[in-house]
Structures are given as C-alpha cells and as structure tokens.
Amino acid sequence: MKEATRLGIIEAVRKGKMTNKEAASALKLSVRQIIRIKKKVEEKGPCGILHGNKGHPSRRALPFKDQVIRLTQETYFDFNFTHLSEVLEEKEHIKVSRETVRLWLRPLGFGGTIRKQPRHRRRRKRSEREGQMLFLDGSPHRWFSDEMTTLILSTDDATGKPLYGIFRKEEDLNGCFTVCREVFKRHGLPSSFYLDRASHFITTRHGGIHVHQRDDRPTHFERAMEELAIKLIFADSPQARGRAERINGIFQDRLVAELRLHNITDTDKATTYVNEIFIPQYTGLFGKEPEDTIPAWRKIPDSLNIDNILCKRYERKVKNDNTISVNGQIIQLLPAKTRRHFVRASVVINHWLDGSWHVFHHDYGEIPCVLLDGVCPAGTSSMSRAEQKGETHGVTYSICRKGDIFMLR
Fold first, then answer.
1. Could you give the strand order of the β-sheet that contains 387-392, starting from the edge strand earlier in sequence?
2. 244-272 pLDDT, tens per residue?
3. Fewer Cβ atoms within 10 A, N terminus or C terminus of the chain?
C-alpha cells in the first residue's frame, strides 16, 4: 500500500500535477531523491519505486547505541553532548559524533531545555494550485433551530471554494472521514490539510487515567492520511487559519437565512441543499482563480479501497473461541475456505463509516464474521434471537445460543 501510494505521487509528478518539492514534502523525502526515483521509474517502470536496499540490513547502523545510552544514564548523565562525545572516545574507546549523541539522547530527556527564539510573523500567501492545501473544520451554530448543530466543511485554500459539507450533531471523526471521502471521490487526493488541534485529528491529552488515545500512537485520522501520503499541518491558533474561519462566518450569515427561507429544518435536507445549491452559488460569488492553473489533485490508486483507509482501525489477537472484542463489541470469526480457525492469530479490524465491521489477516485477507451483539454486516441479522443462520463470504454458518454461550456449527 505504501509503495502504491508512492508510485501514484511519482506518476503525478511526471504528469505535471505536482512539483518535485510538493512530492518530497508528501513522501518526507528530499527533492533530490524524488528526481532520482522519477528517473528510475522512467527506466524500469513501476519496479523502479522499490528502494535498492530493500531486504538488506543497513551498513551504517552503529552497534553500540544501547551501550552509549546505558553509560550516559549511569555515569555521564550531567555531561553536555560535545563533552560526552569527547569522553566516550577518550575513556570508553567509542567514537561517535556529537550530533549522533544528541539524536540518541535528546528524546530521552538529556540535554536540558531548548530555548526558542520568537518568530517573525507575516501574512501567509495562498496556495498556488487547487488541491495543494485544504481546510477541514467544524462550525457549531444554530443553523435551523434553537439546537446547536455543526457544519463540517472542507475548503480549498488556493481558490477559496468550499468542496463539500455535512451537518452533524457535533464535529467528530466519522463526520470528518465522510467529508474527506466525498472530496477524494469527487476531486482526488490533495497534497495537504491545514487543521486545528481537535482531539480526533491529533492527540491532545497527556497523562491521567482518563486517556484512551496513547501518546506514542497516531490517531485514526493521522494514520489514514499517512497511508494516503497527505501531509497534515496543525495550526497553533484560530488566527492562523483565518481564511477558513472567515468562510465559516460567511456561511453562518448567509446559509442560516437560506435554510429558513426554504423551510429546511433537518440535517439530511440541509446537507443536500448546501452541496447542490448553496456551495455552487457561493463559488460563483466568492471563488478565486488559482495562481497556477494545473491542479494538484492526485488520482486515487486503483489498488486502494478508500473505505478500508477512512475508517477506525484496531489490532487484536483472536481468542480461543474464535472471537475478538473491540470497544465492547464481540465479533465471531467464521471458518474461511483457506483456514478453519484463527485462534491466537493477530488480525486487523476496520470499522467502516457505514457501521459494518471487517476483519483482515495479513496472509489470508478478509475473514468472514458476524456480530454477536448489535447489527451484523453484509445484511445478516443481529444475535438478539436464540438462533442465527446465514451465509457470508461464501461460508454457510449457524450459531445457537445457550445461556451466555454461543455455539458455531
């Protein structure tokens, strides 16, 4: 998946839809590497995307990293990085540069605090091409009643044109994924998103027993955008995203009156109206032409299933009764054509936007399953009845319930 995404970006560069600098930012590589990879793809085809050292250990790996960390923690904990590199070479006969020592020890808390100089601030210029950077933000307001509702809207920075919006009770992950899904299918993949620091975008809580999102793991949104090679830029204040905030203000001024005029009082009708009527009218009045007419949108690779990326993803180990539990939801795995059971196997569970659950094994692909509580995917019924029969993924099954025990036949 990662190599397919990289190939898609290189193809976009070759077709002129992205610059070398934008591709380097999306793939976290240098411009020089992008030029080199592009040349290899032109010579060898898609195989040129593979790294030459793939499958081989690094020859530059230093074998004494753990030893340096242990010596620093036990003996040289109050040495600065330059002094430490000198002492290690003189007394421990370990030759390592000051910069390498800094890279190893700074994440562990050594080296003291870093003094940050105040930055000079200036007005940010618009992006040059459409699809180069998008805004995604929720605007809570009394849109068509006394009750607060949120409009989740995505807007292009280069043109100021709204792309898609959806009304939700509040700004949440599924609402943001829904907007992204519609934008990607209608226009393509952008180069970056400019976001606020909402908890569904980035981890904001640190410490405490109430934390559910671990600090050392990305959020579902960060993971999805990384798989699609879309760069995330987080603003430190609402003022930094002034253009998006001003668009929200215009919507709150004009759209409320439009919804009242057309007697629209529910979220579904309001979502249809804002995308089919209001956004085209807004684009004609306030939209701008981009500085560069070549768009930066990237085509979604044919090998990628966008629903398997824009979803909540979990990793679990299968229990002895071929079940897994995710946030209180028990999922019963059914026998596959290639394997009868998956006990103690590590699996990946994707919770799609439509509410369905999909379980995958890294060797055997998607595993047929049913839910023991709640609504079952693929049209199967729930386990509220005493017995359930059906067929999924070509496998016929029957589950009987005796007390709290489920028996699979």
1. 387-392, 395-402, 405-408
2. 889 999 999 999 999 999 999 999 999 99
3. C
Amino acid occupying residue 56: H
Topology of the domain comprising 134-286: Nucleotidyltransferase; domain 5 (3.30.420)
CA distance 200 to 63: 39
As to burial, measured by CB atoms within 10 angstroms (0-12 exposed, 13-18 middle, 19+ buried), residue 192 is: buried
Show the tokens assigned to 183: 């934008």
pLDDT tens digit sequence for 36-64? 899 988 888 888 888 777 777 777 777 88
- Report the predicted TM-score, pTM, of the whole model to 2 decimal places: 0.65
Assess contact for 69 and 104: CB atoms under 8 A. Answer: yes
Q: How far is CA 22 from CA 127, 128, 212, 224, 231, in A?
A: 11, 11, 34, 19, 10
CA distance 272 to 234: 30
* CA–CA gap between residue 265 and residue 188 (Å, rounded): 32
Distance, in Å, from the CA atom of 194 to the CA atom of 12, rounded to the nearest integer, reads 21
In one-letter notation, the amino acid at residue 18 is M
The SS3 assignment for 298 reads strand
